Amino acid sequence: MDSTILGIESSCDDTSAAVIRNGLVLSNIIAGQKVHEAYGGVVPELASRAHQQNIIPVVDQALKQAGVDKKDLSAIAFTRGPGLLGSLLVGTSFAKGLSMALRIPLVEVNHLQAHVLAHFIKEYESDNRQPQFPFLCLLVSGGNSQIILVRHWNDMEVVGQTIDDAAGEAFDKCAKIMGLPYPGGPAVDRLAKEGNPNAFKLNKPHIPDYNYSFSGLKTSFLYLIRDEMKNNPRFIEENKADLCAALQATIIDILMQKLRKAAKDLNIREVAVAGGVSANSGLRKAFADHAEKYHWKIHVPAFSYTTDNAAMVAMSGYFKYMDKDFASMDCVPFARVEI
């Protein structure tokens, strides 16, 4: 029997709805929020208000693009957390209401697990690019930097994670120092292609095991610019491409060094990357280089599944639906949680 899942994602500033049938994506609609650009970051209150405006038209468009009527849905999957509470409340409330109205199961989804499970989305019937268990997944975004051992879709273990800031946050904060627009990651990536990654030496932390730290890198980047600006007020403008290239290369080197160690120690050659930073061209090239050098079988998501999206929520919901792992109507969203 066909299982058709509507996924709803509202953890931060993207309102998204998607429909997946038996693992095959039928639609994946995302509405962004331009209002935050003027503030250099996401404003929670503005985000939740925008979700309220966007959620009904986004869900309607997702159903229409998928060619699915509401009565054909098997379940409603929604992001329960982690994320911004106000934003999550909008998605949670809508999902509960629709579930009750249609009298179909409600499925709660962990946002971090959903990023990992995005690799199991099928884009066409014969799509067989999904990872084989067990595999390692590097989850990198504005709020998370983790190495996850994935034994099964419902059996994941974080073997390494940041002890302070995330890689995506380091990109955004350093971009802000240089006066680049928000979000800073794509701007850094674009300029890095024109620069010399060896032009400047930045701090690399020495953290035990498979854990990360990016606070020292941000500090060394700030001090470099502060010291150079004393002698040359136009330092940033004259060296922007080289600064971006050095920053990007350093972050990627930190990420890949720990991932290599984990893959070697755990004897795993099936390696994936997920999260917003997985859209970075330098990180994607690093994965391709490691695949060739270390004989990894790599899994790099399509760009549409790198940022927050409902297709990954619907995919997670599909797995849970098949296991009859349903949520109750009294469940509430949470801002913080681990995998």
Q: What features would you highlight for this structure?
A:
339 residues, 2 domains, alpha/beta, Nucleotidyltransferase, domain 5
Structure description:
With 339 residues, the protein is α/β, with parallel strands linked by helices. It folds into two domains: 4-123 and 305-322, Nucleotidyltransferase, domain 5 (2-Layer Sandwich), CATH 3.30.420.40; 135-301, ATPase, nucleotide binding domain (Nucleotidyltransferase, domain 5), CATH 3.30.420.40. Helices cover 42% and strands 18% of the residues. The protein has helices at residues 44-66, 85-102, 111-117, 167-177, 184-192, 215-231, 235-266, 281-294, 310-322, and strands at 4-9, 15-21, 24-31, 75-81, 106-110, 135-140, 145-152, 155-161, 270-274, 297-299. The strands form two sheets. The protein has a five-stranded mixed β-sheet with strand order 3-2-1-4-5, sandwiched between helices. Strand 1 and strand 2 (15-21) form a beta hairpin. Helix 3 (111-117) packs across helix 9, helix 4 (167-177) packs parallel to helix 6 and helix 7 (235-266) runs parallel beside helix 8. The relative contact order is 0.19.
